[in-house]
Structures are given as structure tokens and as C-alpha cells.
Amino acid sequence: MNEPYSPAAPRPMSSPSPSTMKMFVCFLAVFIVAQTIGTVLFCLYLHMKMDKMEESLSLNEDYIFLRKVQKCQTAEGQKSTLLDCDKILRSFQDLQRKDVGVSKEHPKFEMQKGREHSHAKGRNETAAAAEKRQPIAAHLAGVRSSRAVSVLEWTTTGYAPMNSLISYREGKLKVERAGLYYIYSQVSFCTKATASAPFTLYIYLYLPTEADRLLLKGLDTHSTSRAVCDLQSIREGGVFELREGDMVFVNVTDSTLVNYSPGSTYFGIFKL
How does the entry describe its membrane topology (predicted)? Predict the structure, then answer.
């Protein structure tokens, strides 16, 4: 008995696995990124190459132009029909004129700058010389006080010097620059025959953290005259090395006896 014929069933097609698809996508992404980076690098290289070529072409053109100028300056080049020597020489002369004009303007500018610099330097040197010529000194006149004081007080006068490197405060002169200084003072006083103790003039170096240091001392005995006031004076001075910020002041045994008539009592200092 014959069995009926039936064709074989087709095989199902095998689909790629998910891991294979992932690897393919990753490979494609890496390829695209590498292709992009390579394209960018190639464009950069091409741009740099073109810049170099333009520079070399520019130099080549300048070289060719100079060769034409050189050839036109010869008799053989002037006879040549391939070169327009008149035009080439005119262009070369125009370039020379422009270059000469720029070079002329530039030295003027440099000269002006040099003059301004020399003037400024001269002004600075003049100011420095004037500062050096101006003495570091101060001269003060006595100021009358209504009561007895431990430190004599002073004031500036219109005819006496007062440098900015010496300051005055509460009877004391302060030096702003270290060095050798001559310190002096004169005090005129009125003596009385009834007094027995001598009138004494002191110049002290003020020391804030310790006892003041005596620099100079002058004494004068009272007059035996029976006059109400016998005018006398003591003057002293000396050279001392002072530090920056040192202060000096004047004191007397009895400030009520001091005479303050013009030119009689004064206190001063100047740097050697």
C-alpha cells in the first residue's frame, strides 16, 4: 500500500544571539569614534600644512619679486620683453618710500620718549638733590607756661627750620632717621639773691621703658645782686648718636624763673 508523500518541513532560521549584537554595536561605535578622531586630526594637519604652504608661497613671491628687481637693474633685463621693468621698479621704489617714512616717524617717537624719560629723570634727580640739600634740623623757641612744668615747652618760628624728619610733641623732639645729631639749648633765667641752689639746665634722652638718660647738664649760680631780677643764661650743646624714633627734651630746676623774651630761650637739633 502506497503511503502519501509529504514534503519535509523547512528548518527554522537561526537568529543571532544578543551577545553577538552587543559586540557588533560596540565595534561599530568604536569605529565611528575612531573615524571621527582621525578626520579631525587630518583636518588639523591639512590646515597647518596649508598655512605653511601659504607662508612658503608668500616668501617665494617675495623672492621672485626681488629677483625681477635685480634682473631689471641689469642691462640684459631691461632689454628683455618678458619683464615690465618700469612697473617692477616703480613698485620697488614705492616700497622703499613707505619704509623710509615709517623709519623716520619711529625715531621721532623714540626721541620724544627719550626726551620725556630724561626730563622725568632730571626732575627726580633734582627733587632728590633738593631733599639732600635741605638740612634735617629743627629750631624752636620757648613758650611761657603759667605753672611749673617738668618739661619745657616750645614752638616753631617763621624764620627757623623744621624738617619733616623731625617731629615735635609735648616738649619733645623726635628724630625719624638714625644718625649723628648735634643737640643744643639755651635758657635765660631771672636770678634772685635770696635763692641759694644753682639754676640747672638738663637735656635728656627720653626712654619710655626705663629712666630717662641725661645727655647734657649746665649749672649757673644765682647772682648776689640785690636787683629784683638779674638776667643770666646757660647754653650747652653736644653731638650724640640717635636711633630712629629717639626723643630728646629740656628740663630746668625751676621753670618759673625762665625768661621767654625773643631769642633768649631756645632748643634745637640738626643731623650731621
Answer: Single-pass type II membrane protein
Q: Exposed (0-12), middle (13-18) or buried (19+): which is 103, by Cβ within 10 Å?
A: exposed
SS3 201: strand
Cell, residue 18: 544578543
Give ∠ CA 230-144-170 in degrees, rounded to 5. 130
Residue 98 scores a pLDDT above 80: no
Buried b (16+ CB within 10 A) or exposed e, 118-151: eeeeeeeeeeeeeeeeeebbbbbbbeeeeeeeeb
CB count within 10 Å of CB 203 equals 22
Asked if 206 and 212 count as a contact pair (C-beta separation under 8 A), the reply is yes
Grid cell listed for 126: 633734582
| pLDDT tens digits, one per residue of 169-188 | 999 999 999 999 999 999 99
Q: How confident is the model at residue 154 (pLDDT cuts 50, 70, 90)?
A: very high
Whose grid coordinates read 633734582?
126
- Letter string b/e over residues 16-50, b meaning 16 or more CB atoms within 10 A of that residue's CB: eeeeeeeeeeeeeeeeeeeeeeeeeeeeeeeeeee
- One-letter identity of residue 117: H
H-helix or E-strand spanning residue 33: helix 18-72
Show the CA angle centred on residue 120, arms to residues 116 and 123, nearest 5°. Answer: 140
What pLDDT does residue 200 have? 92
Residue 144, all three cell numbers: 611761657
Q: What average pLDDT does range 210-214 have in this prediction?
A: 92
DSSP 255: G
The C-alpha cell at 127 is: 627733587
